[in-house]
Amino acid sequence: MATSWTVAVTRQIPEAGLAPLREVAEVRVWEEELPPDTEALYAILDGCDGAITLLTDRIDGALLDAHPSLRVVSNFAVGYDNIDVPAATERGVLVCNTPGVLTDATADHTWALMLSAARRIPESIEYVREGRWKTWGPLLLLGQAVSGATLGVAGLGRIGKEVARRAAGFDMRVLAYDTVQDDEFAAEHNVTYVPLDQLLAESDYVTLHVALTDETRHMIGREQLARMKPTAILINASRGPVVDTDALVEALQNGTILAAALDVTDPEPLPADHPLVTMDNCIVVPHTASATVQTRDQMAKLSADNLIAGLKGERPPASVNADAVLGN
Ligand code: GLV
Predict the structure, then answer these.
(1) pLDDT in tens, 115-141
(2) Which residues are the active-site residues?
(3) From CA 29, how far away is CA 12, in angstroms rounded?
(4) Atom 1 of ligand 1, residue of closest alpha carbon
(5) To test the ligand 1 pocket, which listed residue (52, 106, 265, 296) has its Cβ within 8 A of the most ligand atoms?
(6) Ligand 1 center to 286 CA (angstroms)
(7) 52 CB within 6 A, ligand 1
(8) For 15-48, how does the pLDDT look when each residue is reduced to its tens digit (9 = 90+)?
(9) Domain of 224: which CATH number?
(10) Which residue range is the domain that position 59 belongs to?
(11) What is the model's pLDDT at position 130?
(12) What average pLDDT is seen over the chain?
């Protein structure tokens, strides 16, 4: 039985999230493929008590001021750099996200990207599709070794740790860089914390798993790429702006590094004629690291649970500012 709550969902999400919302609220869903523009976002949120938002929706102080009824913003993502959290906290608005449920999917995808770039899988598929496969060739489409190589994980949080754990199956040496250290995890999984410069210089694969903040924006720029091995491969499944796009294009064109595999880019989407999309030594996929049926169901369910708990005045299962808004 619906109560008097009204909530907006700013894109189609799995039914696993919509069904519980419909039981307690009137639900407005943005049905288009493309995200609502600012005007449409303001309109769909008009009079809403809460919303499930996406990383393509910019939620800032001005939007919250224009929607004083909005009490819970539940992001359908673990990252929440699209939301001005201090502005929300100041206005007593709960901000929620979906940590945990997408960790394995994102770590698996990171490995898919790493292996694909190392073994030149997209190029190989194209080679066969184009009818160029004439015979077995000793020098055909040679890639880079993964087993026994050195993996550098920049950002050893939930996802970085799962990526690192999977490296044991490939007998890799694992280096990590982070601003906080989990010595117990490092000891248990044979991970060595090193400064970022050392990680860049010694790794065959550098994979990025940091949140996007003022400190991590362009964390990988010209100078950092120059420290990497000419045979190194960069993987980014965090946020596009962590890497300086122009510097990466240059590094891939000049042979400063060998290749890159990107789940995220800056900007998103990248046009089809962008050098990162057209170069053979760069793989770009459309920000799909958490895109499994199972994970997206879990994200939908968790974002709905967060929203419903917040509307009820309860502590949501995953909120980034509940302590500040509800008290400890
Ligand atoms: C996706 O990028 C997420 O933050 O969940």
Answers:
(1) 999 999 999 999 999 999 999 999 999
(2) 239, 268, 287
(3) 6
(4) 77
(5) 106
(6) 12
(7) no
(8) 999 999 999 999 999 999 999 999 999 999 999 9
(9) 3.40.50.720
(10) 5-101+293-326
(11) 98
(12) 97
126 and 161 assigned to the same domain: yes
277 and 240 belong to one structural domain: yes
Do 127 and 80 share a structural domain?
Answer: no
| Residue 3, pLDDT score | 64
Count Cα atoms within 13 angstroms, Cβ side, for 277. 13
Per-residue pLDDT, 28: 98
The pLDDT of 305-317, averaged and rounded, is: 97
Nearest ligand 1 atom, CA 98 = 5
Q: Which amino acid is it at 92?
A: G
Cα-based distances in Å from 309 to 96, 296, 315:
10, 20, 6
Looking at the structure, tell me whether residues 306 and 177 fall in a common domain. no
Q: What is the pLDDT of residue 101?
A: 98
pLDDT for residue 261 is more than 80 = yes
Query: Into how many domains does the chain fold?
Result: 2
Residue 287 Cα to ligand 1 midpoint, Å, equals 8
The pLDDT of residue 328 is 78
Q: Summarize pLDDT for 55-104 with one digit per residue, the tens.
A: 999 999 999 999 999 999 999 999 999 999 999 999 999 999 999 999 99
- Is the bond leading into 35 cis (omega within 30 degrees of zero)? no
79 lines ligand 1 (CB under 6 A): yes
Is the pLDDT at 2 greater than 90? The verdict is no
Sheet with strand 150-154: strands edge to edge: 191-193, 173-177, 150-154, 205-208, 233-236, 259-262, 282-284
Ligand 1 atom with the smallest distance to the CA of 264 is: 2
How many Å lie between the centroid of ligand 1 and the Cα of residue 11? Answer: 15
Expressed in angstroms and rounded, the spacing between residue 77 Cα and the centre of ligand 1 is 4
Task: Give residues with Cβ within 8 angstroms of 94, minimum separation 6.
Answer: 71, 72, 73, 88, 310, 316, 319, 321, 322, 325, 326
Regarding whether 255 and 218 lie in a shared domain, the answer is: yes
Same domain, 73 and 210: no
Q: Is the CB of 102 under 6 A from ligand 1?
A: yes
